[in-house]
From TrEMBL:
Organism annotation: Poecilia latipinna (sailfin molly)
SUPFAM superfamilies cross-referenced by the UniProt entry: Protein kinase-like (PK-like)
PROSITE patterns: PROTEIN_KINASE_ATP (PS00107), PROTEIN_KINASE_DOM (PS50011), PROTEIN_KINASE_ST (PS00108)
Enzyme kind, highest EC tier: transferase
Documented EC number(s): 2.7.11.1
SMART domains in the record: S_TKc (SM00220)
Name of this protein: non-specific serine/threonine protein kinase
Superkingdom in the source lineage: Eukaryota
């Protein structure tokens, strides 16, 4: 169905990235608040990132409280718009797929193509800004670890490898509880680099295992990339490494300043002289390097220390998978409510 009548009123811009703009919006019919990401399809790179995000989020058959939910995706050409469905035979959709596959624009460059992603609205900003604007809290750390462990297990269970986990890509929703307090809920977002693993050629009937799906495209953000990603041969265990970087940085409030944006970011690293080197890059050069975890005494308990060390192992086979990670986080939280013992 093609329509020229907009369903949403854009309220204000709330974020801008390298390939899209995010707005706070209102559904005209219901008045509900949503987030709308507008992506201009003016280059093959933008089209590929947008389609990856669409394919990942539309492949999920159920919802998870800690994963951003895609309400719908609208494909716009000039003044006409239509809802986009995975596997659609729409000529407009197929033109985008062809552009992504060929790496060159295959539609009329005189026409303005946009993709509009309608998703959950998160009113608390991103995880990085949220944590760095507040005093360290063991309760918050515990809650965030449990939420992220659950989210990653859900994604891997749905054969999705995120490939760009970092605090900037984790959003905060501050919904009020029945008691009146505002409890932050994390939402893993930004699936532009994600990969949906397909079934193996040996047995198409057997569901794909993300831990056996090998990828070769080195992508992500330097300070959260696993050693094997730098080499270009990795599986979903790279997501575990990225989460390990986040956990360690969150517990000990380890930060660095991004050279390009001059923004303070949560992330653990290795100091080499006057330079800081991403953990993955340092471990690729020296796999036997022993990481000083924790950097400060009594910043975490022995169980958490052991878990983070395993998550940051140079050998991906020595890292827990997402399902083991989720269980161990729950056990640690239940056994010891105080992370500093």
């Amino acid at each position: 169905m093609v329509s020229s009548q907009p369903k949403y009123d854009l309220i204000q811009e709330v974020g801008r990235g390298s390939y899209g703009v995010v707005y706070e919006a209102v559904v005209k019919r219901s008045g509900a608040r949503v987030a709308v990401k507008k992506i201009r399809c003016h280059s093959p790179e933008n089209v590929e990132l947008a389609l990856r995000e669409f394919w990942a989020l539309s492949s999920i058959q159920s919802q998870h409280p800690n994963v951003i939910h895609l309400e719908e995706c609208i494909l716009q050409r000039d003044q006409l718009a239509q809802r986009m469905n995975h596997g659609s035979s729409s000529p407009l959709y197929l033109e985008l797929v062809e552009t992504s596959l060929k790496g060159e624009i295959t539609f009329d460059p005189c026409c303005a193509y946009y993709l509009w992603f309608v998703m959950d609205f998160c009113d608390g900003g991103d995880m990085n800004a949220y944590l760095l604007s507040r005093k360290p809290s063991r309760k918050t750390n515990t809650s965030f670890m449990l939420q992220l462990g659950s989210a990653l297990a859900f994604l891997h269970r749905n054969q999705i490898i995120h490939r760009d986990l970092k605090p900037d890509n984790i959003l905060i929703s501050q919904a009020c509880t029945p008691t009146g307090s505002s409890e932050p809920t994390l939402k893993v977002a930004d699936f532009g680099l994600s990969k949906v693993c397909s079934a193996s050629g040996l047995n198409p009937e057997e569901p794909a295992s993300v831990n056996k799906c090998f990828l070769s495209t080195a992508c992500g953000t330097d300070f959260y990339m696993a050693p094997e990603v730098w080499e270009g041969h990795y599986t979903a265990k790279a997501d575990i490494f990225a989460l390990g970087v986040i956990f360690w940085a969150m517990v000990e409030r380890i930060t660095f300043v991004d050279v390009e944006t001059q923004k303070e970011l949560l992330g653990s690293y290795v100091q080499q002289g006057s330079e800081i080197v991403p953990l993955g890059e340092a471990l690729l050069e020296n796999p036997k390097m022993e990481l000083l975890i924790p950097a400060r005494k009594k910043s975490m308990n022995s169980h958490m220390k052991q878990l983070i060390r395993e998550m940051l192992s140079a050998n991906p086979q020595e890292r827990p998978d997402a399902f083991e990670l989720e269980l161990r986080l729950v056990r640690i939280a239940c056994r010891e409510l105080d992370w500093d013992t």
